[in-house]
Amino acid sequence: MQYVPKYEDKVQYIVNLVNDKKNINILELGVREGISTKKFLEVCKKNQGNLISIDIDDCSGVSNDKNWTFIHSSDDNFEIIDRKIRKDIDLIYIDSYHEPHHVEKVFYHYYDFLKIGGFCVIDDISWLPYCEKEYRDHEFSEIINRSIFNKILEVYNQNKEKFSLEFYFEGSGLAIIKKKSQSLNKSKKIISREMTVK
């Protein structure tokens, strides 16, 4: 029987990064069924924190928790969203539109709102479950997740002193970024010898 990881376990891994953070502020990009939203709200309730979630679909019915604010919008509608969020975010979770240039755009923008020492977690960076004959076998997801993974490496390669980077490969994976300093450099394509002939 093939091992199939649970999304809930991946969310718990994220929660463990910030579980004891008092007065926590979390920004979530992408809600869908609200599995991560509800887990983040448990942390907020325990630690007197607040969660702001953004989704292009109306997910306002996911919770009526007083610690939750839902913004019905695309997460790159910066003019509206910037007026509603604070510049002291402890955790940003990016699980919205899975396309490398979009992920890069929202990461660069919201990084400014993240505290030094805060985490930005990007979902769906592993292509392994989507490879041929794997449990989620899906060609498009394999290609797009590998592209997002490579885009994150391009950003990191130009900003090694600005943030630390770890990868978690359970399920569809996570990139875990811990902020060290402000103002990022632009990403640049990595010159690879992968296709060279010896």
Give a description of the structure.
The structure is a single chain. Helices cover 30% and strands 22% of the residues. The N and C termini lie far apart (41 Å). The model has no long low-confidence stretch (mean pLDDT 96). It has a 7-stranded mixed β-sheet, with helices on both faces. The protein is α/β, with parallel strands linked by helices. It is globular and about 60 Å long.
Determine the fraction of residues in helical runs and give it as a percent range. 25-40%
* Oligomeric composition of the shown chains: single chain
Overall mean pLDDT: 96
Q: Judging from the principal axes of the Cα atoms, what is the shape? A: globular
Number of strands: 7
N→C terminal distance: 41 Å
Relative strand content: 15-25%
Low-confidence stretches: none
Radius of gyration: 17 Å
Largest sheet, in brief, is: 7 strands, mixed
Helix-strand pattern: HEHEEHEHEHEE
Strand order of the largest sheet: 3-2-1-4-5-7-6
Q: Output the structural class.
A: alpha/beta
Count of DSSP-assigned helices: 5
How is the secondary structure organized here?
Elements: H1 7-18, E1 25-29, H2 35-46, E2 50-55, E3 68-72, H3 78-81, E4 89-94, H4 100-111, E5 114-123, H5 139-157, E6 163-168, E7 174-179
Parallel strand pairs: 1-2, 1-4, 2-3, 4-5
Antiparallel strand pairs: 5-7, 6-7
Helix pairs in contact: 1-2, 4-5
